Amino acid sequence: MINGSRKLPTQHISIRVPWHDTGWAGRVCKSPLGNTHCLALPRIGDTRDDAWESSVCGELFDAEGARLPACAAERGAFMADFAYERRFPHPYEHNKLYEHFRRTTFVHAPRSASAVPFAWMMKGDDGVPEYARRLALGFSTDLEPDLGFQSIWVQERRNQLVMLDTFFGAIEPQESLVFFYAKKTPLTEDPRRVIVGIGRVTKVGAATEYSYENAPKDTMRSMVWERNVSHSIKPGIGDGFLLPYEELLEYAQNHPEFDVAPFVLHAPTEAFTAFSMGSEHVSHDQAIAVLLTAATVVGRYETLLPGDWTSARQWIDNELNRLWRLRGAYPGLGSALGALGLSNGTLLAHAVGNLLHSDGSKDIRDPWPVVESVLKDPKKLPADLVGSVGPVAAKLWASLHPERRDLLKLLARFEISADQAERWWVKEKRAKAGTNVEDSAILANPYLCYEMDRRRPDSIPLPAIDRGLFPDPNVLAAIPIPAPSACPEAIDPRRGRALIIQSLEVAAAEEGHTLLPQEWLVDRVRTADVTPPCPITGDWIAAFKEGFAPELEQAETAAGAAAWQLNRFVGTRALIQRLKRRLGGARHAGEHDWRGLIDDALGGTAKDGDSTEKAARKEKASALEELFRSRCSVLIGPAGTGKTTLLLALLSLDPVRKGGVLLLAPTGKARVQMQKKAGDVKAYTLAQFLLGFNRYDPQTGSYLVTNAPGRENGFATVVIDEASMLTEDQLAATLDAIDQASVQRLILVGDPRQLPPIGAGRPFVDVIQLLREQEGKPPRGLAELTIVRRQSGNPDQPDAVRDDVLLSRWFSGEAPDAGADEVWERLAKGAACGIRTVSWDGGADLQAKLLHELTTHIRANVDPAMSDETAFEVSLGGGEWNGRAYFNASREDADGRRQGGGAGVEAWQILSPIRAGEIGVDGLNRWIKRLFRVSVLKWAEAEPHWFRKIAKPFGNQAILYGDKVINLSNGRRYDVYPKIEKAYLANGEIGLVVGQYKGKNWKLRGLPSKLEVEFSTQLGVKFGFGGSDFSEDGDERLELAYALTIHKAQGSEFGTTFVIVPNPCRLLSRELLYTALTRQQREVVLFHQGDMRDLMKLSGADHSETARRLSNLFRAPELVAYGGSFYESGLVHRTVRGELVRSKSEVIIADMLDGLGVPYSYEQPFTAPDGSVRYPDFTVDDAETGRRLLIEHLGMMDRPDYVSRWKRKEKWYRDAGVAPVAEGEAEIGLLTTTEVGGFDAAAIKAQIIAAMGL
User: What's the whole-model pTM score?
Assistant: First the structure.
């Protein structure tokens, strides 16, 4: 090891590998285009040659390295049983300092991975790596060269060796384990790292220096950062193993309903940094955490896939026994010493460990006597650490109250960071963090360190506490945990409570539940990933629930069964329930010409003869009056019904405008859209607004109910748009931040049919449900728009609703429109309006058909001589000149509308429910780049390099000048032109890269070095993005946006959308399809795999994400079991027979038929003699009488457009030989029911009896 490096205690190592479909055995992927998961790594994403790799798919790597796949540089062959060479230049070969560097050969040893500890090679703001400072390494900033540009990476050979020797010196062959992990896989969309293999390090290779030619004396030298780490994993199960993910994926493909998630081994969330940045040290405690989970996962494989899983579990058990001994009882000793105030706490802990085992023994010993010894006599420490301890530290330790010492020793039992230990041991810091608890309480219940810390950005994880209190029995026997901290039993009440809290937090974050039935909770705690298990029961809860306060509160289901809820949601419920008081309050007085206001907002009166438009305006006028009069209201309706028009009409009223209007939205994208339409009324995101009232924590993204004074009282009207995205936390924090006495109108606006919020609850849907259940009709506070005014353009039916709108209604959770099932027929014939369908089978077929549709679209209005590539770039905001497209920020035309740049970037959009794979967003974006962005890449790769016109590609997607991109995080931006005070970019904003471009007017020094993006939501402004926005680990601020996930598209609108629907696809839900089908303004092209009518299955309530959420916001949850899942009864409609139908009226009809003993089918296809199909609500086939009866329930016969569509359907029935029962007996009779004038169940029953001859 080079002088200045440091020998550290033994560590384990994590090594990042790309996903591979041939087991990392030294072969090119079987399906390179299908593997988009490996593209998350920059050195693959921006260098993979898709065409070449496809031409050699499945072939062995060339051992001599003449040509290798991109993954060869990213450890894509760590299981290969042969060596191969790889040659590469230095990344800065064009810099004058590196002119003498030559291509260097690196030999990859058999069964090894070339590990690179990127985090260790990153310099801080002061030029020193964080690890060098923390470990007091001999790093010299004076040796680092001046490159002429900023670089965060260590450059000089000696400094590199100081860092690399220290890192690799801690990896001991035969002692250290190696954990291979992948960042992205086809197994799951879960963002956690996936462990693909575990083995033992067998050898650490020597360092490699770059090759030079004609190098002057004392010139620049550098090391290759990679070193081979050989491992013990072989095919099968021996000294380590690979997880059988290929076999698992094959099993899942043959069993579409199979959930692979429980069989995936993830790196622990609390050890995220140990599984990041290429390669990192993994501590004994972190390794134990992985192996404990691995034991559980491997156990599941025993009943699923063939393999010697018994040997795998035995290997894991043996390693756990060894690692617990190495870990000892105090893995957090260094952090605890740092909390005490000693500098170099980690190094002191290492030194104490060496002294503790100076006799060579490996038994488990208590380090605290040695700590006391070195505090008294620092000379026992290594020379470079003697200065870390002095008489002040010795006196401090000697004077500590026994309780304070006990707390420090307790914290040392947990592997936590120095900051975490300091926050919990230093009373003043604990108070500043808002953790109001005494030392004695922490000692009495160490799990408080998780419970009270869990909403912080650097929270202490529960598993870290649990492993400290329940270590291996040998560790516990050697160094027992003293009372009152000790937990003598696995079902200790303190442990059980913490696990219940964790289960409820996970349920809220990942499933959207705000409470859980006790039965579910017991099961989740019993199966929690902890060792030993915590087998609580309902009886256990009854015995210990008095100790659950204040974190937990008991609730009930509608059936009276016990349920439990986090106290946080008890508070949010109480705040939101105050909306009931508003609903019952006095109505606002005032008379206005409501219809006239709507006409003014729409630019004039409706055309004569347009009955549908008149009905739509009547509906809007009624809704406008309700918004004005109600103290709490919701405005709901699908896209195209005119919600924005209605709001503008409301804001035009003097009483409203003069009282002040506050516009809020849950996302930055929604805020900007609202601001564009609201004129001079200022709009804010919830985060922006709540931050000023300390109800939002930007570090954690948490929305807080504080009940603190200092509320907003300057606005009489508060409008929250896109309210379907609101979580309970967000809505409650907003209500807590506004002075209720000053707010005269609270209006929630949105479409409840869209996807539920990302987070806990579904308050918008629950508020709507509350309003609908009122006794009065129409319901107070409910302003609903139902008539969509996106016209068909059909001259024969000028008021017809477009078919894309009709199709979306199938997935709205409501009874379909009278004409909704006609759309399937028109889609099949290719005669639909506003939507076209394209069937596909397989990735290649999809790409061919998508290319045809996309090319046709982008070429629709361009010169035939223009190339497809240029037409593509012009279609998204580029400007053509001399046959090439150039990209500039948008400019105003003669009418004041902005054109080009970001103004055109949302003209069309590809949408897919999935990210990964050839047909997912990642694969489609890469495919688009490969087809349409070839020429611009030449500008970035020009040789000689000074001819380069644009910045080099950024990130693993190789983002370039002219690319369509999406911003991935919320936050302030400082590189903005023109300068804007507090410039802010929101997650989800879509833009076009309009710079930098080195043209004849280029005035800056040097070459283009960054991306300049104009976003569609902030036209006229360019935001700069540079290297710091694109990390080595693949976590980036910008992403390509030619294709987006449907989730990302929520809240956006595009001119034309191309929607990809795979079949099967576990991610598809009713709300997801509805959202996908309502993002377009002009047309949607729906690419469906398999039979188009298979999508009908997704329209049922059993495919609703919203209905699966458990909430007790306004009433106790009433659970309905169906198909192995549970649904909220108020959001589904179940018949006596147990089937799910679309409305309460249909439940009544179904139960009536069942009660009469009449056999029926629900929504079964009825085929006419000409082969056309419709879907009556009920079909009754009476074998005894030979009678056949079709029943249609007509829910909106008070609307002219609905009546018109029903008349067409009724005619179809007549043409098919179906006659209304009122006209006498027929072979097939048609019975219609309606709600106009009320639902007359008795009359309907009499009609059924008569029609069936009962």
Answer: 0.92
